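Appendix B. One record, verbatim.
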Amino acid sequence: MAKIVAIVTDAHDRVGGGAPIFVEPDKVKRESTAFLLEKILDAIAHDLKDGNYILVDHRSE
């Protein structure tokens, strides 16, 4: 089962849940943070095209 392990967003009030949330108002910095977290967390960054990235662990348990 896939699990959201982090969220990178441009506005904290647009997201919620139990995953860590990283707020980066700048588009370039937001993308950079998402791709860095992708490597650190061994996850996959998915661009939702609305200012949000979700980092998902797709490994089976």
